[in-house]
Amino acid sequence: MTALGEFLRSRRAALRPADAGLVSYGSRRRVPGLRREELAQLAGVSVAYLTRLEQGQAKGASDAVLDALARALRLTSDEHKHLRNLARPPAAAAKRTPSRPARLRPAARQLLDAMGGVPAVVIDRRWDVLAWNPLGHALLAGHVDAASPDRPADRPNLQRLLFLDPHTRDLYPRWETEARQAVAALRLAAGELAEDARLAALVGELTMGSAEFAALWARHPVRDCTSGVKAFHHPVVGEFELSFETLTLPEGHRVLAYSAERGSGAEAALRLLA
User: CATH assignment of 106-273, given 3.40.50.10330, 3.50.50.100, 2.130.10.10, 3.30.450.180?
Assistant: First the structure.
């Protein structure tokens, strides 16, 4: 089954007929959630077309069809975006384009250096660390060589650290929450970069190396987490919580910046860490 088919099937399985306004006769159903026939009815498409779409045999699905499926499945805006990405993969020519290591613009590095009192890190769309300021390095990965982002072959990857590095796992007292959010964001990126060989290799590495990642990946979560609060259990300065915001740069690179409430224990912890 194609990635699109797997995604549609996972969302059908998660939606009960009663949730979609359908009457379910009897208690014995061969499949969990909506049947393919029921989704086709709700979206106003034929079962044959929906079958071809799930099997990757129907190309160029219209906006109207994808919007109807999204409404029927009650998708979030992130899931709707992911559905469109999966239904419209890159052209064949794009599939042959090798993915290259990202490069950080001097202006972006200058911005990072100016954020001296704020832990900050710049990542690309694959979660490779392109740069971090000293406080960002000390907060997220003080056990990793601070100069490693300058060497493309050795760049830390935040997803790899989260699932395969025991030091990073210990950093997050609510690791399971971090893991769910990370996989959901990676799923969204995988739909946008469907033919990126390096991203596909990362997913394969994490699937083989972490049973927890593999189980989460199989559920097809999709969500872009760009702000919120993270709890830390830091080996040097103890436990605290920081707010985080994501700033998007023109190349699709992102700045993750962390901050503490003024006068809080977290602010004192950051000063000590600095």
Answer: 3.30.450.180
